[in-house]
Amino acid sequence: MRIDRQDRHILEILQTEGRISNQELADRVGLSPSPCLRRVRALEESGLITGYRAILDAKEMGLTLMALLHISMDRHTPERFENFDKTVRAIPEVLECLLITGQDADYQIKVIVHDMEAYQDLLLNKITRIEGVTGAHSSFVLRTIVNKTAIPIPDQL
């Protein structure tokens, strides 16, 4: 799908203000409501917009310990990776899981829990019990400097 300046502006706004009304969105991008809504629906149907979410305050929910884990696997086979991927997707404390290269690890996982006791339970009773996991190295987040979900919109699409 080719997008123009107005589509790009719509995408920028919706990334940070997903609950904006169509009327306000139309006003901000310089369109009337009907064409604006048609553009948003076209962006959704094209797959550029994949969903809308509420972002919760983790601290208000008592989730105060965030950690990054580097996970090493014993074998690099499709079956091992598929099993790990499937298992880690089902763990609610896992916020992000990346298959990585350039490190001594195969995966980087970002998790959030209530406290160190909950982290220990997660690590020892869930993560390290996944078949093929041979190592888990933890780093604890002291402070979040940047935490955004908005991605840059390329000039050319």
Automatic annotation (TrEMBL):
SMART domains: HTH_ASNC (SM00344)
Domain HTH asnC-type, residue spans: 3-64
GO MF annotation, one: sequence-specific DNA binding
InterPro entries: ArsR-like_HTH, AsnC-type_HTH_dom, Dimeric_a/b-barrel, Tscrpt_reg_AsnC-like, Tscrpt_reg_AsnC/Lrp_C, Tscrpt_reg_HTH_AsnC-type_CS, WH-like_DNA-bd_sf, WH_DNA-bd_sf
One Gene Ontology term, aspect cellular component: cytosol
GO biological process terms on file: regulation of DNA-templated transcription; response to amino acid
Transmembrane segments: none
Keywords, in A-Z order: DNA-binding, Transcription, Transcription regulation
Protein's recorded name: Transcriptional regulator, AsnC family
Gene source species: Marinobacterium lutimaris
